[in-house]
Specification:
By secondary structure, the chain is an alpha+beta fold. The chain folds into 2 domains: 8-127, Rossmann fold, CATH 3.40.50; 142-348, no CATH class. It has 7 helices and 20 strands. The strands form 4 sheets. The protein has an 8-stranded antiparallel beta sheet with strand order 14-13-10-6-5-18-19-20. The protein has a 5-stranded parallel beta sheet with strand order 2-1-3-4-8, with helices on both faces. Strands 7-9-15-16-17 form a 5-stranded antiparallel beta sheet. A hairpin with a 2-residue loop joins β18 and β19 (336-340). It is globular and about 55 Å long. Bound molecules: fe (ii) ion (FE2). Fe (ii) ion (FE2) is lined by residues 76, 269-270, 307, 321, 323.
């Protein structure tokens, strides 16, 4: 069993990552957590901030009551701030928010206001066991690769995704906001998470059509499971209209989606690919679910990552969210191959 205690090597890793995120002497830092946060992560953040001479405060919120009809995991939408005005105002006044909330603030309703105040940047320490963070530590070299991938997405009009398993998906990228993170940022408003390393786009309305066939070994990050059976999705004008499959994977996925009783839960959220060579598919076989938030699997180099649920850029809001990384897909942008059968191509390779 993995122990959750301070290790010198983990503190050293936190110090390096904080430094990469521009934290040094006198940097104004807020470490935000909630009562259900993983204590060892909060403690490591506190010690690293102290060692680097940061001027920091620690804010801990009570974890809010559940409101959804099913358990909600790995969404990147923390409700921990609960519109608390004192917390929002405090976070606007720091240079960087170190986010140890369970789900993370990336899609939190309060983040846009904090960002628009023009000062704070965000570093999400995802709720992984420190051993996973240690292995997936952000490296400066990944920064330009992720930037290049995001640029390629921005310049493209169409993404096409195919696979031998039967996937054939077309995404209209025109006007789609694109982003990504290598796991660090140093400018106001930047959003980073550790583990990092992905490029993605949020397609607009009537932009996604085709068929997605998930195969054995692909992953469902909401359930933190590797598939043992196939699931085939029909996508028409941004919405999953049919989910076929006889295995437990399709059965649970259908059940979870229907539990929301919300058409938007069937909408496409983001599409993209992973960039981090340290992220490993086989980690899914090596860790208990309690040891991971599964963000490592969002960053798998050469994976096709697609998701269902909220897409604010297409005007769709819902709490139901699946992140679904796939192996062995070929991704093209306007006919240019960026990922071939699950392997990153050309200049994107670190
Ligand atoms: Fe997602």
């Amino acid at each position: 069993m993995l122990q959750e205690r301070i290790e010198g090597k983990w503190l050293a890793a936190f110090r390096r990552v904080f430094a990469l995120n521009g934290i040094g002497k006198g940097t104004q830092v807020a470490i935000l957590s909630e009562t259900q946060s993983r204590p060892v992560l909060v403690h490591l953040c506190e010690l690293a901030a102290y060692d680097l001479g940061a001027d920091f405060c620690m804010i801990c919120m009570p974890t809010p009551p559940q409101t959804a009809p099913v358990p909600v995991k790995s969404t990147g939408t923390s409700w921990a701030i609960q519109q608390n005005r004192a917390v929002i105002e405090a976070l606007k006044r720091v240079d960087i928010v170190i986010d140890c909330t369970v789900e993370g603030l990336i899609h939190a309703p309060e983040w846009p206001e904090i960002e628009e105040a023009g000062r704070a940047r965000l570093l999400v320490i995802t709720n992984e066991h420190p051993e996973i963070l240690e292995r997936c530590e952000p490296r400066a070299e990944l920064g330009p690769k992720v930037q290049l991938g995001v640029q390629m997405l921005r310049e493209a009009s169409e993404m096409r995704v195919t696979s031998a398993a039967g996937t054939d998906l077309t995404v209209d990228l025109r006007g789609a906001p694109c982003g990504g993170t290598a796991g660090f940022g140093t400018t106001p408003g930047s959003v980073a998470h550790w583990p990092g390393g992905l490029c993605l786009a949020f397609p607009g309305q009537n932009a996604v059509n085709g068929r997605i066939v998930m195969d054995v070994g692909d992953m469902n990050l909401t359930f933190k499971t590797a598939l043992t059976s196939k699931i085939a999705f029909t996508v028409i004008e941004d919405f999953v209209t049919e989910i076929e499959g006889d295995g437990i994977d399709a059965l649970h996925l259908r059940e979870y989606m229907r539990a929301w009783d919300d058409r938007n839960a069937f909408g496409l959220s983001h599409v993209g690919w992973g960039m981090n060579p340290k992220a490993q598919w086989v980690s899914a076989a090596m860790y208990d679910k309690r040891d991971m938030q599964a963000v490592e699997f969002r960053a798998l180099a050469g994976s096709f990552l697609w998701s269902t649920g909220a897409n604010q850029y297409a005007g769709r809001f819902t709490q139901g969210h699946f992140d679904l990384p796939m192996r062995n897909c070929t991704i093209t942008l306007d006919g240019r191959v960026v990922v071939k059968e699950g392997v990153l191509q050309g200049e994107l390779v670190l």
